[in-house]
Records
---
Amino acid sequence: MKITQFHHSLWLIAPIALIIATIAILSEKATLPIKPNLDAYSFELNLPGTTDRKQLIQREIELYQTKLQQDPNSGMNLASLGNAYWKLGKATGEVSWYLLAEQTANRSIAILPFENASAKLTLAQVAQARHEFKIAQNIALDIIKTKPKNDEARSILVTCALATGDLLSAEAQAKIIVDRSPNLNSLTLQALVEEAQGKPSSIETFRFAIQTEEVGEVGPSALVRVMLGRHFYNQGKLDQAESLYQEALRILPRYPLALINLATVQTRRGQYAEADRTYDQIIAYSQQSTNIYDHTVLRGKARLKQLQNQPYNDLLQKAETLLRQDTNAGHATGAFGHRRELAQLLLDRRQNNDSVEALALMQEEIKVRQDSQTYAVLARAFVANNQTPEARKAIQPAINSGIQNAGIFKQASEIEQQLGNAEQSKIYKTNSQNIDPDFERSLQSSQIDF
């Protein structure tokens, strides 16, 4: 079946909560989850780049493990170890490190239940990664009660507010952080809020954030460039987007988020071989355990094969398997909140009862996440189930947020067209073209038969 509504901007995953936070933890004796067998696809292992950052974090982990051998009941050392596990999870995307971070933080709190903001922050980040936004918010608020100047806790409030569509709260919390300390992290958060609100000032705020970066801020420096690159990508400015992604990769080689976004640019340009090699680098970076980007890589590779009229169902099936594991709370890796991504896959494929299941998934997801992208996917699910009036209601909060996204306005235009509202459909279509003049042509050239 030909799907004409395969929006680049909706397919690209990068949820803000997952970008900025992810975590978890097991005991040292536990068995880590095994990475699915992807060897059949001949991923290249000897790729350019360095793992210096990964090695630095691993040395930090070894340091705290040594300290804990000397004092196994040190709550502070456990908190520091949990934070190091979290940083390694963020650097590699490997779920096992998130799981280790969570369990270590819990052990730390069991020993040191008071004045332990570090361990609590790790737990808040885990909850956020699992899309348990209320839990994450409550932990952050608890920290702020005793440490009102804890900007990390307040940052969690910002990202949770973004994920739940509470842009006014996100704006207020970001302002507190920026007013207190206008640095790389706080300004990046403010730029993300402005972007969600559709404010033109977001570009300058991103650039200002880059100007304030300091030596040693490797991860945040790479992240802000990916976020600004994504902003340009959504405007169809592919050269500027690619330049920023490449700059992020020079700062942090093999950074999965930069590679995913770079592959999306290459796919849109029709550079399929280059995109395939870019996806390979993500797999090559982590071979030992489940990676939070695995399903995205598999979906991207399936998309490339489909665009080249090559078999792709086996890759898509592997992506679906991983997504179903991630949405199953009882699975070994825990539930890392990928209902929306699973729904998107089902909507792209649309076989048997895929559309019905996708709608059910999105009706559950909207209860916990109310950002513009979630509303847009919910609207897609309604359209796929011939519930166009409901789709119109679902897309409206995304439009009302102010976000400037060509895909969302194109989607709204199609919904209005189906309802016979030609004038409103034309307005939305014009908005889409104003944001990204090349969106329509690139969308047509990337149609996928599922």
Note: Residues 338-450 form a domain with the Serine Threonine Protein Phosphatase 5, Tetratricopeptide repeat fold (CATH 1.25.40.10).
---
Amino acid sequence: MAQKIITEPLTKTNFQDFGEVIDTGGDPDMLINQGVCERYHDRAKIDVGPDGKVGLSLFNSEPRSLPLVLKMMERHPDGSQAFIPMSTNGFLVIVANDKNNKPGAPKAFVSAPGQAINFFKGTWHGVLTPLSEPGLFAVIDRIGKSQNLEEFFFEVPYIVDTV
């Protein structure tokens, strides 16, 4: 029988073991463009390892709805991966700690408008899951010769929902 995962709001504190929440929280680091633009500087640690390069891609994903059946998680052992929505819509973020080279018990978060995330290198996570249209994201991650992808399929899927 499937186990249920209840979503939580995405905050810097409850996400700190898995990656970074990228937002405009706090005071801007500087004003630029003749004082009409607030710069929130260096908000994520992009990790591409010693032999990778930073890549910027666009992902266009079909929106999904809750409850969601979680059958698989993946991780990228050689680099971090940032997802930046190109809309103000929230999205679903599913993560798990590593447990003997497999994902442990998953956790699920729903982002607020204006939030993006950067998964730390090697973090188990669900696939890109927008909850409304458009599902367009800028993705900053490692480009290199290694496969940089591991997938794990659960014998019994999880059900992700809000209650």
Note: The longest strand covers residues 150-161.
---
Amino acid sequence: MTVSLCPCLSNKTYQTCCKPFHDGVAFPKTAIELMRSRYSAYVLQLTDYLVLSTHPDKQNRGLKESILQSMKDTQWINLKILKSSLGLEIDKIGKVEFQADYINSNNHETLHEISRFKRHKSNWVYYDGIIMNNP
């Protein structure tokens, strides 16, 4: 049996980390868990999970197509959580600042974002993010 580490780089196996979220049998308890599960979903190209884990107010008509287009030539290679505020089990909102490295059309790039998360029907969902300028 092959045990593979989770793409979110948590040092846990995929089976015990993000897979239960992706399969809909569990829900992230914190904004950081949701952030990690969404990163893994990008790595694994799980578009439906990315749409479902986005706040309904932000699920515009072209969201799925936009996600699919962004995945076309992108290989995600690293995630680093820089800091977070709120976003715990007792909170209703949270922020996670992260950097994610990827290769797009043979160019190494870094996405630096501060993501905002909210509770919707008691579950964490991605609300929006501010892309930061990389030095």
Note: Residues 93 and 118 are 4 Å apart (CA to CA).
---
Amino acid sequence: MVSQREKAKREFRQMMIAIIVIAVLMVVAALFWLHSQGELRVHMVIATILGVFFSVLVGTGLFALAFFSDKSGHDQQVTDATRGRDKH
């Protein structure tokens, strides 16, 4: 039987793959839009790729980590540990 933590890890990996694909699509869309507005320069392309990709990756990745923490049982372990400590 698959443990709760293993299932959460598998779901997190799948979520991160989807996030990376979405980030790449967002970069392509941003570059397409910039190209439609005028000439693309090398520094603009590099800044767009890095800025859009890492912004999407960090923003959604942090949410994915929060969901992973909850699904894997880490949050419950902390809650249980602090409840026991508060009773003393």
Note: The two ends are 37 Å apart (CA to CA).
